[in-house]
Design a protein that fits this description.
The chain has a single domain, classed as 3-layer Sandwich (Rieske Iron-sulfur Protein), CATH 2.102.10.10. It has two helices and 13 strands; from the N terminus they run αββββαβββββββββ. It has helices spanning 2-16, 77-82; strands at 31-36, 51-57, 60-65, 70-74, 84-85, 90-93, 105-108, 122-123, 128-130, 137-139, 159-160, 162-165, 168-172. The strands form three sheets. Strands 4-3-2-6-7-11 form a six-stranded antiparallel β-sheet, with no helix packed on it. It has a four-stranded antiparallel β-sheet with strand order 5-1-13-12, with no helix packed on it.
């Protein structure tokens, strides 16, 4: 009876704990970015299934939404020097699956398979990110895992830790 209770307790403990996905977060590339989610175009982050790419170029942020619409934001000298964009930039958004608390996730805009700053992913309204160089494809709405059917094993997307506090979304590692 005592042994059965211990086994049952361990099973309940194992199934009641939330899956810790911190091990899937990448620290290979340094990231620091923050934005206010009540301001356009970042207000799109409040909608499940919507993603934005954010990259830094020549003192500006270039933000592209799932529809391909581009926005530019001139950076102050302080923000330009403090924002770190990982390998190639960021893909940020609110996934529709495995996201009970509607948190905003952040992936690297660079292809994890090609692992080069110039190889950026493209993504669509369905939440699929793809690389034109290696033909890899990943699901942004699940966990950044590979969705290729070519039989090749591709690395998952680089994912970064995020926080959300008083309307300010931050990606940092």
């Amino acid at each position: 009876m005592k042994r059965g209770f211990i086994i049952l307790s361990l099973l309940l403990l194992a199934t009641s704990c939330e899956r810790n996905s911190y091990a899937t977060f990448s620290s290979k590339y340094k990231v620091f970015f923050s934005c206010e989610t009540s301001v356009a175009p970042y207000n799109q982050l409040n909608t499940p299934g919507r993603f934005l790419s954010v990259r830094k170029t020549e003192g500006k942020l270039v933000i592209t939404d799932s529809d391909g619409q581009k926005f530019e934001e001139t950076l102050s000298e302080v923000k330009n020097s403090s924002f770190l964009m990982g390998l190639s930039g960021l893909i940020i958004g609110t996934p529709t699956f495995n996201n009970d608390n509607m948190s905003i996730w952040a992936y690297d805009l660079g292809c994890p398979e090609c692992d080069a700053p110039t190889t950026r992913l493209k993504f669509d309204l369905k939440g699929t990110a793809s690389c034109s160089k290696c033909n890899g494809a990943w699901n942004l709405n699940a966990d950044g895992s590979c969705v290729n059917t070519d039989g090749k094993q591709h690395r998952p997307l680089y994912r970064y830790p995020t926080t959300f506090n008083n309307g300010i979304f931050t990606v940092s590692n």
